[in-house]
Sequence to fold (490 residues):
Amino acid sequence: MGDRGAMADGAEVQRLFLRRTKRRRTAEPAPEHVAPEGEVALMAQRGLFLVPKHALDVVVRGADGDVVPPSVNAWDVQTAVQKLLVPLAFKSCNLVSRTDTVLSFVAEAKEREQVPRIIETLNKREIKFAHNRQHLVVRVREHQPLGTTEAEWLAEFPAHFDDCSAGKRPDTVAIRDVPIRWFSSSNPSAVDEKVVREAFGQFGPVRAVHAEINQPAAADESDIALPALHCTLFVQYATYPGFVAALTTLRTRKLVRRTEEKDYEARISVRFDTEGYLSLAVIDKRRQAAELAKQRALLEEQERERKRLRREQQAEQKRLAEEKRQQEEQARRERKEQRRLAKEQRRLEAEQRAREEQQRREADFARVVQAEKLLQALRDEQAALEREEAARLAFLKSEIERKEEEKRQAQKERLRRALAAERRVLQQQQEQAEAEERAKREAERQQMLQVEEEARLRAQLERNLRILEERKRDVLRQMTLRKLREGVQG
Fold:
């Protein structure tokens, strides 16, 4: 109901703008238009919402225009400003620029009601640092983004809206730093124009849409191309009220995508287009540039192909030369191998003759050795008989000792088995006690899990009740607004 209410307020703003446009035929200045308050559903089915950003400009400068000392860093200044703001606090605070005399920050308040209190608390306050005798003065005001007010676009486009062609009048909104994936469909790296038209068409009829991809800069030519994450959306409206409604709604809001896990913020920057990006002339120039780029890319591709063919031809010539060199080297090695084999053959024949002579001598020596071995064998046989008798006696002695040792081992084994049986009984008793202890701990864990589940369900029920209460308040508010409008119209 809150989203439909915000869209209804936007429609009311468009009707007011339309009546004003019909009356105005010259370019006289007009008061600022007021965008719908609160949150605006851009595309609820995609979780895209426009949430107010209560931004403030925080300027810190040296007292009496003095130079800010280099020893004072931005983080120290930001911390000091936060301390002056206690018990309030910024939702975020970021350094925008720094000069010799000024440090500029853009901060965001947590709630709209805190903005006047923050300005009153910080404005004209002084900051003192222990390591520096110079004082700094704080100035705070509500943030007003450039290129979003009616005075600015009337100064840029003084002629009447209907007297100018599309793109050369206040009809195009430029939205920078938009995440591409939030407005993509089948291709996550490209913006779907149908999605953009559906999202921003709630402010008025859309004439044209274009997405300029923010290409990430590479460190050098050898780097791999990185995928683009953000783009600049150019949305051109067919009517002046649609343009005004879109710009006045977007300029004080940030784009938020809500998921079940968390909310993701995109800090977009919005202004009206002053370069005629979607005018016919610029579109033609962009198309011609694209065609030139395509032709240049084709020529570069052809040049790369020629270089590739040249490299392949040079590589083939080098390969053929290498094969020829290898063949010549192989023939040289074969001739060298033949000479080596002939020399080896002669050496082997000489060695064969030497071996035969050596074998003859060894045969004569072997016959002498054989006779000595026979004599030695007779002596060894006599000694073996003596050793066998001694061994038999030793065996009998060892058998007697072995049997006695077996008796002792059998007695030890009976004692060991008795002890092992007793240990098994004790181990079984211990395992039974441990099993009972594990079962007890498991039962306690299950009970704790049940208590935690009940607490979770109770918390979920409370959240659902709060949501129902909020929806009830929204319904009452819408009914009150409807009755007031009917009373005014009556």
